[in-house]
Design brief:
It is a single chain. By secondary structure, this protein is α+β, with helices and mostly antiparallel strands. It has one domain: Sufe protein. Chain: A, CATH 3.90.1010.10. Helices cover about 40% and strands about 20% of the residues. The chain has a 4-stranded mixed β-sheet, with helices on one face. α1 crosses α2, α2 packs across α4 and α3 runs antiparallel to α4. Bound molecules: zinc ion. The site of zinc ion has 8 residues, from α2.
Length: about 160
């Protein structure tokens, strides 16, 4: 099995059986993400333990790439603090947009499967929607209107 098959299998698996799918109630913050180009919509709810993500869920409707990316993301960020999440987001962004064909760094783990999206530039927003939505949810923690979801659009 070559790398492309492996990437495809991870994406298909996470689309078919999304991990951490649903809604946390109560939650410390939530955000809605919308990618109008593709029609992907998702809602992220999370609970914090200090600066770390204690638990996170997502729900929504979108294409296979947006769903798989959100599923992979929720697995990857659980237990991480804000700076580790920022670092991971930057690495995912680089992996999604690096056209030099370099292999993704080993610390990406299963998120490396998103490197397959590089070949479909129109789908990069599908894969990055969940990360922008997570950023919005983290920025929204403690906001005066924290009970309502923050919202973010890729446009
Ligand atoms: Zn999409």
């Amino acid at each position: 099995m070559d790398l492309k098959d492996l990437y495809r299998d991870v994406i298909l698996d996470h689309n078919k059986r999304p991990r951490n799918f649903g809604k946390l109630e109560p939650c410390d913050s939530s955000a809605d993400g919308n990618n109008p180009l593709c029609g992907d919509r998702l809602t992220i709810t999370l609970r914090l333990d200090g600066d770390r993500i204690d638990d996170i869920r997502f729900e929504g409707k979108g294409c296979a790439i947006s769903t798989a990316s959100a599923s992979l993301m929720t697995e990857a960020v659980k237990g991480l603090d804000r700076s580790a999440i920022q670092n991971l987001h930057a690495q995912v962004h680089h992996t999604l947009t690096d056209h030099g064909g370099a292999l993704p760094p080993a610390e990406l783990g299963k998120l490396a499967a998103l490197a397959g999206v590089r070949e479909y530039p129109a789908r990069v927003k599908c894969a990055s929607l969940c990360w922008h939505t997570l950023d919005a949810a983290l920025a929204h923690v403690g906001a005066p209107d924290a009970a309502s979801a923050a919202s973010v659009s890729t446009e």
